[in-house]
Amino acid sequence: MLKSSNIQQDLELVNKIKLGKLKISIYGLGHVGGPMAAVWLRAGAHVIGVDKSSKVSEAAKKGVALIPEAGLSKAYLDGIKSNRFVIEDDPVLASQESYFKMICVPVLSRNRSADFSILQDVVTSIGKGLKKNDVISLNPSVPPGTTEDIVVPLLEKESGLNVRHDFCVIYNPERIYEGQAIKDIENNYPAIVSSIGRNSIKISVTLYSIIFKKGVFLINDIKTAETEKLLEGVYRDVNIALANEMAKFCEVVGVDFWEARRAANSQPFCQIHKAGIGVGGACIPIYPQFILDVARKKKISCEITEKSRTINDSMPLYCVRNALKLIKNLDITKSIVTLLGLAFRGDVSDTRLSPTYKVIKILRKYDVKEIKVHDPYVKEDPNIPSNIILTSNILDSINGSNLIILIADHSEYKTLGSDFFGRIPVYDGRNILNRSLTSKSKVSIIGVHYNQ
């Protein structure tokens, strides 16, 4: 690792960025690109936004962000008012007009393996508009080798330039938690940075020091930086799998997993994660798969990583089976089941790889009469079957229900109690319900033995 504090910043470059003389283009205004655009706007930069979704682009032109990220829409609107934020529909032109291009599009597919098609399209456009001395940064989590084996050759091919002499490429993995992304970038973490190209170290430190108050953590080679980000996700996935395994163990032996966990975690060398009905999102379920795909190509074994994925993927089925025990005396084909939460986790609208999709699929195999889904943040979703009711009215969602399964840990669910549930059995797949509030209800909690 190199220390960024020992590298003198290019103050002239900083001034040109803050004065808008050198523009920044951001490709992808989603959960990563949107907050990145915001922090650059808040730093005084001139930002060109590019997104293939006309819905996202048209909203951004009006100063509206379609994801519930604190401070995002305000940053857009302030940027528009000061003529520092524009949306460009032509990705090649955006590259031509900008000095620093940030690639913030996802690298994933439905089977969780890497799909580079979107990335390649963006890189091709950037390459066609690339100029000498420009800087390109890749920000999504990617399999090791992506930057040097895919991005750089494509940029050189399209531009006719050479990365060693003519332009700079940076790999900077996003490190954000949805809902507080702007705060994470500006205040919470250092930027992980690795780069190639003429004077690339000084350039990358200068650029990222503008928006990351925690500084820049420099890594010598890009493949190591790519791997670092995947290790973060694998660490969490493995530890969640351990928690899930221990939760199931505790249920069988008649122990409250949550009480045992709380006591165990009072020891500083033990930090057991939370058990849950499933692991969703575009991060934790994806990064281990990137590792496993590369491991298979290299013919090496990553047994813990692979087993952890299997455990976490099995949790929706395990939890549904336990939930259905609460209504074992009812005819399942005549029963109505309410699912609380479609987002992959609490207080966000992101549904990517949400465990709710698996729960729906499992319940349909059981021939449940009707499934209702409630989520306060998700108003519509083309990915759920048309005969399933999706509502933001929580009272409507439980009307006539025979069973409630709590999936996402939204804040508004935490205060629900016996007055709300009444006699409807509840399976708490996140352990977020207040036990004193639900003492009069028939509630089963993941990790806690329940005498059916």
Shape descriptor reads elongated
How many distinct folded domains?
3
**Class computed from helices, strands and strand pairing:** alpha/beta
Classify the fold: give the CATH topology of the largest domain. Answer: Rossmann fold
CATH class of the largest domain: Alpha Beta
- Largest sheet report: 9 strands, mixed
- Gap between N and C termini, in Å? 56 Å
Which CATH architecture of the largest domain is right? 3-Layer(aba) Sandwich
Give the fraction of residues assigned to helices: 40-55%
- DSSP strand tally: 15
Radius of gyration equals 24 Å
On the 0 to 100 scale, the average pLDDT is 94
Structure description:
The chain has 452 residues and is of the alpha/beta class. It folds into 3 domains: 2-220, Rossmann fold (3-Layer(aba) Sandwich), CATH 3.40.50.720; 229-309, N-(1-d-carboxylethyl)-l-norvaline Dehydrogenase, domain 2, CATH 1.10.1040.10; 311-445, NAD(P)-binding Rossmann-like Domain (Rossmann fold, 3-Layer(aba) Sandwich). Helices cover 41% and strands 13% of the residues. The protein is built from 16 helices and 15 strands. It has helices spanning 11-18, 33-42, 54-61, 72-81, 91-97, 117-129, 146-159, 181-188, 200-211, 222-253, 257-264, 287-298, 303-324, 355-365, 394-398, 418-421; strands at 2-3, 24-27, 47-50, 85-87, 100-103, 135-138, 168-171, 191-196, 216-218, 336-340, 370-374, 389-391, 403-406, 426-428, 443-445. The chain has a 9-stranded mixed beta sheet, sandwiched between helices. Helix 2 (33-42) crosses helix 4 (72-81), helix 5 packs across helix 6 (117-129) and helix 6 (117-129) runs parallel beside helix 7. The longest helix is centred in the middle third of the chain and has 32 residues, at 222-253. The N and C termini lie far apart (56 Å).
